[in-house]
Each structure stands twice: as C-alpha cells, then as structure tokens.
Design brief:
20 helices, globular, 451 residues, two-stranded antiparallel sheet, two-stranded antiparallel ribbon, 2% strand, mainly alpha
C-alpha cells in the first residue's frame, strides 16, 4: 500500500510540481523499493518485474509527463543534448531487429530514463529549482542509504539478508538493504563528489565528514569498481578547474597512491582481488604479468564475456543484435539473475560499434559542456557545481566497463544525472542599475552549490 501511494504521489508531482518531482526522485535513490514490498513481483511471464523495476518505469513515466506538459521547454532542452536524441533514436530503431521486443523495450527504458531525468531536471531548474537543492538531495540520498545499511548491519540483517561475501576485518560487505554492494558503493561515490565540492565552496566541516563517511562506506563495501570510480571522479573534478594547479593535482595523486598502498596491505582486499591470495606475494603479482592475470579474480566475468562473444559471433559488428538482445540471452541461460557485468560490452553487443560510439559521444558531449561551464565561471559556485557534475559523470562512466551500472537507473543513475543537470545550470546575474547609484550585481537567482 505504501509503495502504491508513493508511485501515485510521484506521478501527481510530475503533473503538478516538476521541481518537487525531481527532488523526490533524487532523495528516494537512497531507498530500494523492495524494502517496502519485500520480494513481491508484479505481472507474470516475460513481463514479470520487481518493485525496483516498476519504480524505474514510474520515474520514466513521470519524466515523460513533466516534459509533455512543457513542449516548448522540452524542445529547448532536447536541443542542448542532441547526441542523446541520436543514441535513443538508433536504439529505438534497433527494436526492428532485436530477438525480443519485450527485453528490447526494457533495455530502452534503462537507457532512456537517465537522459529523460536529465532533461526534466534542466526544465525544473529553468522553472526555479535551485541547483544546490539537487546537490543536497544527492547527499541526502546517500546518507539515507548509509543509515539503512548501518541499521541493517547492527540488527544482523533485520531489514534484508546481509551480503555473504567477506569484506574488511572479516565483516560482511557493507550494503543498503536489498541493494548490491556495487549499487550502494556507486551512490556513495557520487555523494562524496557532491559533499567535497560543497566543502570547497562553503568551508563547512560537515561536508568533509559526509565525504569521508562515504569514502569509508565504499571501503567497507569492498567494491573495486567503486574505488576506481572514486579515483577517476576526483581526478576529473580537479582537472576541470579553470586554472589547474599542479601542486594540488600532485597532492591528490599522492593521496590516491597512499590509499592504494594501504589497500594492498589489506588481506581482505587481496583476497577479493586474487585467487589463492595467501599463497602468492604482492611482489610477484606486481612484477609478473602472467601470475597477475592467472590469479586475478574477475568474479567469472572473463568466462561470461567469452561465452557472450561466441554466442553473438554471427551478429553485425556495426549494428549489434538489437537492443535487449544481451538481456534476452542472459535470461535464456540456466542461472537467473546473472548479469554481463560490462555495460560497454553490452552496448556493443546490443547496438554494435555505431551504438557504442553514439553513447560515448553523448557522455563526452556532457563532459565538454560541464568543462566549459567550469572554465568560464571562474571560482564561483557555478564552477564548483560543474566540477561536481564532471566528477559524477566520469565516475559513472568508469563503472561501465566492469559493472552493470545501466541497471541502477533509479539509484546511482538518477543521482549522477541530477548532478550533471545542476552543473550545467547557469546563473543569470544581470547588473541592476539604480538611479544615482553605482552598478551593483543583482542578487543571484540561485547558487549551484549549498552554502
């Protein structure tokens, strides 16, 4: 009942208040919907979905409603992201050669919803939504997820079963209820970027505490892709500054090196990374490429990728097997719930080189646009907001080679794209002329970063 009321409420918000809709969607990214419904599944047969998938469809429907009610604003926003229109058009066209229209439509929803939410947030900002509120909502979502994860851990799985895989200090991998460690850790990384940017703007110690808490949560989730996302995102954050200071960049790289070195001393991390970790020293792993590759624990990814390569050998390298073809292939296998764990490879198999290139260009276009805002805005809140957007987006992209991040639409996905929208916002600060008085800058309409 609570879940149904929540879904209906979001759709009503999409009709009545697009700003509230965007904030609620970002805030709810910290809650997995099965927490409200349990393991219940809806519909039957090939249409069967769980509560989280149904919520994702609701988010997409809300975005479509909000944009349809504002055709002029939607058209202006679409003109700002033409690469996404090309990508989604090509993906929709591939439905004509996909082996399963049902799985094709499901994958199309996963691909389209982040772009639709980006457009909806941009429209909401044009209607007065302060970008800083989106950034605070992203931080709030991560804090909700972290609080639920700690509560579930303290109560020994009262909300959902703990992850059985061993993490740091022999503890289970940290994760929010009904969330995978990947989804949880990726959300923590996005919030860490937001909190760090807010600290640089406001110098409030609370934001440092939030950023460090998110970083520690990622360590206890012991997710390798999230650690890589965190490193790449912070590197992007600092490279996007208007005037790059080599000393700051060097300090950041040294900090990352120290963190990496500390992880190497962790037996839990070594066991997560390699087979027979206790029997082979780090010196051998780092100096012998053969030993490194032989012992590297890919969690079965390499075997699954080889099988996918064989199964899709007859499809076109340029056009792929059609959107959703990988999902259909996986669901036809014996093990339910297995994922390809490489969304870049999945896009290649689904949409071919053309589709993968369209996706990479769409991401790159957003990074370029954010970088332009960061450089032209100087040291203002706009610049910090744009740098947060860069960090979130490149961190998001960094997870795609080895994880199924496109599935995390209503959690990590909407948060990352909300931060991109906040970063793309520009303030209309027009000087106000008062008779007999000097020019004084008008009050800023809104600031990109919480003060």
């Amino acid at each position: 009942m609570v879940f149904a009321v929540l879904m209906l409420g979001l759709l009503v918000l999409a009709f009545a208040n697009v700003r509230g809709f965007c904030l609620w969607v970002v805030g709810l990214a910290g809650v997995e919907m099965p927490l409200l419904t349990g393991e219940a599944r809806f519909f039957s047969g090939v249409l069967e979905v769980d509560a989280q998938a149904l919520y994702m469809f609701c988010v997409m429907a809300g975005c479509a409603i909000a944009l349809a009610l504002r055709p002029a604003a939607a058209a202006r926003t679409a003109a700002r992201i033409p690469a996404w229109l090309v990508l989604l058009g090509f993906a929709a066209l591939s439905l004509t050669w996909t082996p399963s229209a049902v799985y094709g439509l499901r994958m199309l929803v996963k691909l389209a919803t982040p772009a639709l939410f980006l457009a909806t947030c941009l429209v909401a900002i044009d209607e007065g939504l302060p970008p800083a509120q989106l950034i605070r909502a992203a931080i709030g979502a991560a804090l909700i997820a972290l609080a639920l994860a700690l509560l579930n851990f303290v109560t020994r799985g009262a909300l959902s079963p703990l992850i059985p895989v061993e993490g740091l200090f022999g503890l289970p991998q940290l994760s929010a209820p009904y969330s995978s460690p990947s989804n949880f850790a990726f959300l923590m990384a996005a919030a860490a970027f937001a909190a760090y940017g807010c600290f640089l703007r406001s110098r409030k110690a609370g934001f440092v505490i939030v950023a460090l808490s998110c970083g520690v949560a990622i360590l206890f989730a012991l997710n390798r892709a999230a650690l890589g996302s965190l490193a790449v995102g912070f590197l992007g954050f600092h490279l996007a500054r208007a005037r790059l200071r080599p000393a700051y960049l060097l300090a950041g790289l040294l900090a990352l090196a120290l963190i990496a070195g500390s992880l190497m001393l962790s037996p839990a991390f070594k066991k997560r990374m390699f087979y027979d970790a206790d029997d082979i020293p780090w010196s051998t792993l780092l100096t012998d490429s053969g030993a490194f590759l032989t012992h590297l624990d890919t969690s079965g990814r390499n075997d699954l990728w080889l099988q996918a390569n064989e199964s899709f050998a007859g499809t076109s390298a340029w056009f792929g097997g059609g959107i959703g073809s990988v999902d259909r292939w996986i669901r036809d296998r014996d093990v339910r719930g297995v994922e390809l764990h490489s969304d870049l490879y999945r896009l290649y198999l689904d949409l071919g080189l053309l589709g993968l290139a369209c996706y990479c260009v769409a991401i790159a276009a957003l990074v370029v646009a954010l970088g332009r805002v960061a450089r032209t805005a100087g040291s203002t809140g706009e610049a910090i907001g744009a740098r947060i957007g860069v960090a979130a987006l490149v961190g998001y992209f960094a997870t795609l080679p080895t994880d199924n991040s496109l599935n995390y639409v209503a959690q990590f996905g909407v948060v990352a794209y909300a931060l991109v929208a906040a970063g793309l916002a520009r303030t209309a600060a027009v000087p106000a002329v008062v008779s007999g008085a000097p020019l004084v800058p008008a009050a800023v309409r809104y600031a990109n970063v919480a003060r």
